[in-house]
Structure formats: C-alpha cells, structure tokens
Amino acid sequence: MPDWLPLALIGGALGLALLLLLLALRGRRGEDVARLGAMMEALAAAQDRLARLSEDRARDQERSLAARLDAAAERSQASASAIQQRLSVIDAARQNIEALGSQVTSLAAVLGNKQARGALGEVQLRDLVADRLPPSGFAWQHTLSNGTRCDCLIRLPFPPGPIAVDSKFPLEAWAAMQDAPDSAARALATRRFTADIRRHVADISQKYLIPGETAEGALMFLPSEAVHATLHAAHAELVAEAARRGVHIVGPSSLWAVLNTMRGLLRDARLQDEARRIRHEVEALAADTARLERRIGALRGHFANMQQDVRDIEITAEKIIRRSEAIRALDIPEDATARAAE
User: Which domain holds residue 63?
Assistant: First the structure.
C-alpha cells in the first residue's frame, strides 16, 4: 500500500466532518444529519480497518525485510567461508610453487655440475635396466679386458654377445643451441653439440667394442628425451654415422624397448640352457636304462641256469627215492642176512 493513502483518508474524514458541522449549523433537517453521522461512523470503521491493515502490512514488510537480511547475512557468511577456502588453496599453491622453485633450483644445480649430471644419468640407467632385466643379466661398472670400465654390461649370449652401455649427457651444448639468440649463435652451438656427440661415439667405439669379448655394437644412453629427440630430428646423419661405427644412440623410451627385446633374448637363452640340461639328463637316463636292461638280462640268464640246476637236483632226488623204495621192496630172509653178516 502507498504511504500517502492513509494520510489522504484521514484528510477526507476531517473534510467530511467539517461539512457535517456546517450543515448542522445551517439548520438542515435531522434526517440528513443522521445519515451523515452514519456515514461518519462507517468512515471511522473503514479507517480502523485500514489502520489495522496498514499495521499488518507493515509487520509483514518487517518480517520479509528481516528474512531477506538473514538470507543476505547467510550468503555473506558463505561467501566469506568460500573466500577463506580459496585463500587457503592459494596459500597452499604458493607454498608448492616455492617448494617447486627450490627443487628446480636444486635440479639446475645438479644439471650444471658434470659429475652430478653423470650420476643422475647413471641412476636413471640403473632404474631402467634393473626394472627390465634379471639380476644375472647385467653388471654395473664392469671392467673389460682392455682396462676400460663401462657403466653397464648386459650379458647377452653369443650371438650377439655382451653389450656395453655408457651414459652421456651433453647438456651444455644442447642448452646453448636452444637458447641461442640468433642464427649465428645457434649454428655455433649446433657445431659444438654435434662435436660432443661425435667425441662420445668415438670413445665408446674405441673402448667398448672388443672382438670375441663384447658384441659388435654398444649403446650410448642419453638420459634426456629432449636431447634424444633433437638429435634424431635435426641430426639424423649423425645418428646413422654412429650406427655405422657400432654405437647405437638411445633415450629412456627407446632404451626401454631395447631392454624388452634383450629380456626376450635372455629368456630364450635360459630356455635353451634348460633344454640342453634336460636333453643331457634324458641321455644319461637312457644310458642308465640300457645298463639296467643288460643287468636284468644277465640276472635272467643266471636265474634260468639256477632253475635248470634245481630241476637236475630234483630229478636226482627222485631217482634216489625210487631206488630206496626198490631196496625196501626186496624180500631177504633174516638168517641169510645173519650168515652174510658172519
């Protein structure tokens, strides 16, 4: 209800009262005055009802406003809680970023040190080899007959024979090639990168390829997929040159595939060894069986001879029994026997 409506009604009631008063003063008839009085009473009753309705409306508006204020307060509290949770998440993310930054700094320090970088490559190589091959299939820091020591020797049977694996991490030249500001600097870094790879390939080819002791090829392990991908994508001729010298360049993914193949070779070699042992045992068992048959044949011959001897003894015993019975059957007088005795 508009706020001006109660005031207008009150003003109308006052105007009507004044009109009635003027009519009474002018001497109008009593009937008109009574009618106007009834109208005044009806107007007063309507005003009371309007006032009560206004109060009810006001109370309803107050309750509605209080409910809206409570809902707004709840929403504000929920928003504050959500903001607090987001702030907690942001703080945790900030802490993680700080920790990651320190780890990146530590990793940069490790990669910047050649010895530490080499140790990191050896650790990655150890994890890959130990995960795919049995303990008897490899040896760490194996010393060859020429006095050189390789990072890992994979003990494959001939052919192809044991394969030496050496871990190399040419990071400086690769990083310089990636961060080169212009084409001249990039070309210089590329020449340095290819020179490092060729030097590593030459070292591996000279040290770890020994006829009769190792296989005709060796593996150069690059612990970085990025370096390995750059080498194969941009310097395929260098990879082919290394393969012609008996050095195969592998990264973590390709080494994993190569180790799977070697695992199958080792399993086949072990199965062949077991098959040879089984065949040897079967041949020995066949020889023992033949020997047993010969001895059983000899025993059977001895048993047959013994049976014949037993039959001969039985025949002789029967003859003796018959002769004794014949002797008992003879009728010889006793006086003749006595005279024969004298």
Answer: 4-89
Domain boundary among 269, 298, 329: 269
pLDDT score of 6 more than 70: no
pLDDT of residue 247: 92
Please give the model's pTM, rounded to 2 decimal places. 0.50
- In this structure, the dihedral spanned by the alpha carbons of residues 334, 335, 341 and 342, taken in order and rounded to 10 degrees, is 160
221, 240, 269 - which closes a domain: 269
Are the C-beta atoms of residues 182 and 191 closer than 8 Å to each other?
no
Tens digit of each residue's pLDDT (9 = 90 or more) over 182-216: 888 888 888 888 888 889 999 999 999 998 899 88
256 and 188 assigned to the same domain: yes
Q: What is the 3-state secondary structure (H, E, C) of the chain?
A: CCCHHHHHHHHHHHHHHHHHHHHHHCCCCHHHHHHHHHHHHHHHHHHHHHHHHHHHHHHHHHHHHHHHHHHHHHHHHHHHHHHHHHHHHHHHHHHHHHHHHHHHHHHHHHHHCHHHHHHHHHHHHHHHHHHHCCHHHEEEEEECCCCCEEEEEECCCCCCCCEEEEECCCHHHHHHHHCCCCHHHHHHHHHHHHHHHHHHHHHHHHHCCCCCCCCCCEEEECCCHHHHHHHHHHCHHHHHHHHHCCEEEECHHHHHHHHHHHHHHHHHHHHHHHHHHHHHHHHHHHHHHHHHHHHHHHHHHHHHHHHHHHHHHHHHHHHHHHHHHHHHHCCCCHHHHHHHHC
Residue 175 is predicted with a pLDDT of 75
Number of domains in the chain: 2
Q: Looking at per-residue confidence, does 115 or 160 come out higher?
A: 160
What is the pLDDT, as a whole number, of residue 281? 85
Does 109 have pLDDT greater than 50? Answer: no
Q: CB–CB of 185/174 below 8 Å?
A: no
pLDDT tops 50 at residue 106? no
Q: Are residues 258 and 116 in the same domain?
A: yes
pLDDT at 147 over 70: yes
CATH (domain of 176): 3.40.50
Q: Are residues 41 and 152 in the same domain?
A: no
